[in-house]
Write a structure and sequence with these properties.
The protein is α/β, with parallel strands linked by helices and 586 residues long. It has helices at 16-28, 44-49, 53-58, 112-115, 117-125, 143-157, 194-205, 252-255, 257-260, 315-324, 419-429, 473-492, 560-578, and strands spanning 2-3, 7-12, 33-37, 71-74, 82-83, 165-166, 169-170, 211-212, 222-223, 229-230, 266-270, 272-282, 285-295, 300-311, 342-345, 348-356, 371-374, 393-398, 433-440, 449-457, 463-468, 497-500, 518-520, 544-546. Strands 1, 2, 3, 11, 12, 13, 14 and 24 form an 8-stranded mixed β-sheet that branches. Strands 8-17-18-19-16-22 form a 6-stranded antiparallel β-sheet, with helices on one face.
Length: 586
């Protein structure tokens, strides 16, 4: 094994959180920093010339190669897990930029109650209302502590939107239920085509409070505090699954990478597949010594020594590296002991209703974050006293841009689904079809967790990560309730025909449910109930920090902005406190 000269910092993962941490440490210190990314380095010119729907949207050009590494999935501990061999319930990215290159760009904050979900739920409804077998817990940090970092992240991204609560003052046109914010969004809301405007009018007529979706696609030319300038969106519809051809969508490669390249103390090594975090116990405690990775181009095994290690890869990969490195006590579902791997959550995302109209909607125009949502049914906003479930989410109508392959073939239930008649109807309804989606919270349960699979391995012979995951009655009842609410809005929109979501059933690994997998290395106020502290510092290994969605003990809706806010907060405490006196921060 080849050993390289030691560096001050090694960061595993070149996506949003990894590159943001590299940027913050690189710009504000003289630390030598190496970012290791197992994928390649996409080039902006590829996005300009490569808007190929078959390649990007269907075959997953910017996503993890599942033939080399995937996860296994089962519903209960009594089932045998099987590998996920095709893209379905989530879409992990690969390469410099990670999933931040192909994301849609929706970018909202978590509400204040998300961070104190256990305490607030018990205070309002009593402990007996908590679902059986839950594993809900508070974060160990509050919204008020996070707010300055939310603002910092929004300014960096150039988020477009409309504020609804500026320092406690409610603002017309924004979300009246959001937590307070320091100021208005950096850029105005994105434009809307006819379809989300219909949703907006119908929701208002029914007494709801719709507002423009917050998006990191800039609505106009914008220069952020790092002096990175981006143009406004042109609504081409090629956002989700694609890199932006003009740079209007904020991506790690167009927002963070140009800054990082100005600093010689930061280097990025692509095609470096990290396999282990090397650690040892000394008199001053347990410490990480660096990481071992495979140079994918040569097959050579390399040891990169470092004084500080940051895990900043996708949730499933962060957890897998901790398991493979034997850092932390694995969660045991039978005894409830251990923390590593527990509180696995996803997101309850589904198409509540599909609407068919008798007029064109011009839905080929749009962007990944353009749309309207309402939070009247979200979290603590909704009174659950007489409801059979807890928490909730947002109903949303988007104009993402309907592309020819993915959006073709939808017809009403009353029509045939094959032959010449179906082809004729599919052409007719191509631009006369819309959806109302629901994005909801997925509560944490003791029976949903991650561990290493005893059977299946990756290309290097290491065990795959195993997900044990299923929906519970709370989520199923929530879906039934939200589908009825969506039907009310659909009828008010004047749809010619409406198809409703049938039911939630069991967790379905073949259906896209967002890429928002969370948990496993969760944050908390004590090492007895968490893997990392509120600064994302590992309780047992103080020079190891674990960034990203793996730290979420309980998710809100849409995690990226919260992940970036957490990263800013961690970078602040590392620069301001840890480097002066290395050790535990709490």
């Amino acid at each position: 094994m080849k050993t390289l000269p030691a560096v001050d910092v090694v960061i595993v993962g070149g996506g949003w959180t990894g590159l943001l941490m590299a940027k913050e440490l690189g710009c504000n210190s003289a630390l030598s920093i190496v970012v290791l990314e197992r994928g390649g380095s996409p080039k902006a010119e590829e996005y300009v010339a490569g808007m190929d729907e078959l390649d990007f949207a269907i075959r997953g050009h910017l996503m993890q190669d599942l033939s080399k590494e995937t996860v296994t999935l089962r519903h209960t501990s009594n089932d045998r897990a099987v590998p996920m061999r095709q893209y379905g319930s989530f879409l992990p990215g690969t390469g410099v930029g990670g999933a931040g290159e192909h994301w849609g760009g929706q970018c909202n904050r978590f509400t204040p109650d998300c961070f104190e979900i256990l305490t607030r739920t018990i205070d309002r409804y009593g402990a007996k209302r908590l679902p059986e077998g839950h594993s809900i817990q508070d974060w160990g940090v509050t919204y008020d502590e996070m707010e300055p970092y939310y603002t910092k992240a929004e300014l960096m991204l150039g988020v477009s939107g409309k504020a609804g609560n500026i320092r406690g003052k409610k603002i017309e046109g924004g979300d009246p239920f959001e937590g307070w914010r320091s100021g208005e969004y950096p850029t105005p809301p994105l434009k809307l085509n006819a379809y989300p405007q219909m949703f907006q009018s119908a929701a208002k007529a029914l007494g709801y409070h719709p507002f423009p979706v917050a998006a990191c696609t800039t609505s106009e030319a914008y220069t952020n505090p790092d002096h990175i300038s981006r143009t406004g969106c042109m609504y081409c519809g090629f956002c989700v699954f694609y890199g932006c051809m003009i740079g209007a969508k904020s991506q790690p490669t167009n927002t963070l990478l140009p800054v990082i390249k100005n600093y010689k103390n930061v280097s990025i090594r692509a095609r470096a597949a990290v396999r282990r975090i090397i650690h040892q116990t000394k008199k001053r405690g347990r410490r990480a010594r660096g990481v071992v990775y495979i140079d994918v181009r040569t097959g050579e095994e390399v040891f990169q020594p470092a004084e500080l290690v940051f895990l900043a890869s996708f949730t499933i990969n962060n957890n897998r590296l901790l398991f493979l490195s034997k850092i932390g006590e694995p969660y045991d579902v039978a005894t409830g002991k251990g923390n590593l791997g527990r509180n696995l959550t996803h997101q309850v995302l589904f198409e509540a209703v599909r609407l068919f109209f008798d007029k064109p909607l011009n839905s080929f125009m749009g962007s990944g974050g353009s749309g309207v949502r309402m939070n009247d049914l979200n979290g603590d906003v909704l009174d659950h006293t007489d409801l059979p479930f807890l928490r909730g989410g947002g109903l949303m109508c988007q104009s993402m841009g309907n592309t020819p392959i993915s959006s073709f073939g939808n017809v009403p239930d009353s029509r045939k689904r094959w032959g010449s008649e179906w082809k004729k109807d599919a052409v007719y309804y191509y631009d006369r079809t819309g959806t109302i989606h629901f994005e909801g919270e997925h509560l944490a349960y003791k029976t949903n967790y991650m561990d290493l699979d005893p059977t299946y391995t990756d290309r290097f012979g290491d065990p795959l990560l195993r997900l044990t995951l299923d929906w519970q009655e709370n989520e199923r009842r929530m879906v039934t309730f939200m589908t009825e609410k969506a039907l009310e809005i659909a009828r008010a929109m004047g749809a010619k025909q409406v198809t409703a979501f049938p039911s939630l059933g069991h967790y379905d690994g073949t259906r896209l449910q967002s890429t928002h997998i969370q948990g496993g290395a969760i944050t908390g106020a004590s090492p007895e109930r968490s893997v990392v502290n509120s600064y994302l510092q590992h309780w047992q290994v103080p020079n190891l920090f674990v960034l990203g969605g793996s730290s979420f003990p309980q998710p809100g809706i849409l995690p990226t902005l919260t992940m970036l806010a957490q990263t800013y907060r961690t970078a602040d405490v590392v620069l301001g406190k840890y480097l002066k006196s290395p050790g535990s921060l709490v």
